[in-house]
Design a protein that fits this description.
The protein is 40% helix and 20% strand. By secondary structure, it is α/β, with parallel strands linked by helices. The strands form 2 sheets. Strands 2-1-3-12-11-4-5-10-8-9 form a 10-stranded mixed sheet, with helices on both faces. The radius of gyration is 20 Å and the shape is globular. Bound molecules: 3-isopropylmalic acid and magnesium ion (MG). 3-isopropylmalic acid (IPM) binds next to helix 4.
């Protein structure tokens, strides 16, 4: 039987994963089994570490990982290696989950939820491919004192060419399965890391003559995402730029509570999580939107478990639930987390 590691994490993580498992149970029955383990601040509080060995072991044993969110204000002043965020960074690194797929598409039912004009928002159907194992996230970092006695923080940004090539290939392959357009986002006018990125993407393009490749500086990409998001098909970018642009893209389609993500290794084993965080301000109140996690589970069925028809069913049920007017607070509605999942279940 297929084993799903369920790592709810902090804040609203447990609320949204709980509802998502109800949907998975309905669609997949006893073909999936679930094993839960603590992660993030919850794991620190229970076991003294945000990514305890048993949790990492479960993640390795499982066929796929369903992840809620990490982040807990109680833990913000801990030494960095003990903070909740280290759990997700550790899982990405330990499991070599280097390819982060973050789709953003407007649900027709939600054209009015975007802060963009409806005719602009209606054009959005893009996929951000974010590199997850390198960049300034994983470079040497620290605090030191300058010669003049000032405190200085530093984080080294770097990519080697093999890291760029493997994520570029994912970008080209993804574009090939979609509309055939790939936009590589960098800051090559300022950063050496980005110059190498751009050079390697151009070299890799020789393997994909059928794909229309373009390049964009990240500042311009941020502007174009709100000016004319319809121009994008697939965006491939580094870890830091992808983090920022994917939050931006989420708001363009209405709410960060809607966007799923997949983080894949070279063999399509994956961790699936909503791109939103733990939202401590609304945690425990039943206000969270479970759709991003439910849609992440659909991605899990499609990308890691070979269950594309079931993934289609879940995605169609989400659209149908929205069409009936079901809306959580982030979308201007009054459905609580469970009621929103009930609406999806009713549409299945
Ligand atoms: C994300 C999050 C994480 C990141 C945090 C929680 C470490 O913002 O998945 O986008 O920066 O990658
Ligand atoms: Mg982020």
């Amino acid at each position: 039987m297929t084993l799903i590691a369920v790592l709810p994490g902090d804040g609203i993580g447990s609320e949204v994963t709980r509802e998502t498992i109800r949907v998975l149970e309905r669609v997949c029955g006893d073909r999936l089994s679930y094993e839960e383990a603590p992660v993030g601040g919850a794991a620190y509080k229970a076991k003294g570490h945000p990514l305890p060995p048993e949790t990492l072991d479960l993640a390795r044993r499982a066929d796929a990982i369903l992840f809620g969110a990490v982040g807990d204000p109680d833990c913000d002043r801990l030494e960095r290696h003990l903070r909740p965020e280290q759990a997700i960074l550790g899982l990405r690194k330990e499991l070599a989950l280097f390819a982060n797929l973050r789709p953003a598409k407007l649900f027709a039912e939600l054209a009015d939820a975007s802060t963009l004009r409806p005719e602009v928002a209606a054009q959005i159907d893009l996929m951000i491919i974010r590199e997850l194992n390198g960049d300034v996230y994983f470079g040497e970092k620290g605090m030191r004192t300058t010669t003049s006695g000032l405190r200085e923080g530093y984080d080294i940004m770097s990519y080697d060419e093999s890291e760029v090539r493997r994520i570029a290939r994912i970008g080209f392959e993804t574009a090939r399965a979609r509309k055939g357009r790939l936009c590589s986002v960098d800051k090559a006018n300022v950063l050496e890391t980005s110059q190498l990125w751009r050079d390697v993407v151009i070299e890799t393009a020789a393997e994909y003559p059928d794909i229309a490749l373009s390049h964009m500086y990240v500042d311009n990409a941020a502007m174009q995402l709100v000016r004319n998001p319809g121009q994008f098909d697939v965006i491939v970018t580094g870890n830091l730029f992808g983090d920022i642009l994917s939050d931006q893209a989420s708001m363009c389609v209405g709410s960060i509570g809607l966007l799923p993500s997949a983080s894949l290794d070279a063999n399509s084993k994956g961790l699936y999580e909503p791109i939103h965080g733990s939202a401590p301000d609304i945690a425990g109140k039943g206000l969270a939107n479970p759709l991003a996690t439910i849609l992440s589970a659909a991605m899990m069925l499609r990308y890691s478990l070979g269950m594309a028809p079931e993934a289609d069913r879940i995605e169609a049920a989400v659209s149908a639930a929205l069409a009936t007017g079901a809306r959580t607070a982030d979308l201007g509605g009054s459905f609580n987390t469970t009621a929103m999942a009930d609406a999806v279940l009713a549409a299945l």
